[in-house]
Specification:
alpha+beta, SH3 type barrels, two-stranded antiparallel ribbon, DUF3107, DUF3107 domain-containing protein
């Protein structure tokens, strides 16, 4: 799953690929926001990202898209 996180006062959003299912990802985010503190996510390469919950502007979760490479010729 692709996760985009907007952080207050940051010019760019954080983007990572997570191995979590959509349900587990939603539960992790909701639990962090409810309890306060820090949202901790791990990407598909094992890197961890920690974001203070009070600095989160938005979180967008989308299915990963497989990008095709090459050209298509219209008939």
């Amino acid at each position: 799953m692709e996760v985009k996180i907007g952080v207050q006062y940051a010019p760019r959003e954080l983007v990572l690929e997570s191995k979590l299912s959509p349900k587990d990802l939603s539960e992790t985010i909701e639990q962090a926001v409810t309890n306060g503190g820090v949202l901790r996510l791990e990407d598909d390469k094992g890197r961890q990202v920690y974001i203070p919950v009070e600095k989160i502007a938005y979180v967008e979760v989308a299915a990963s898209n497989v990008r095709s490479v090459g050209f298509s010729v219209g008939a």
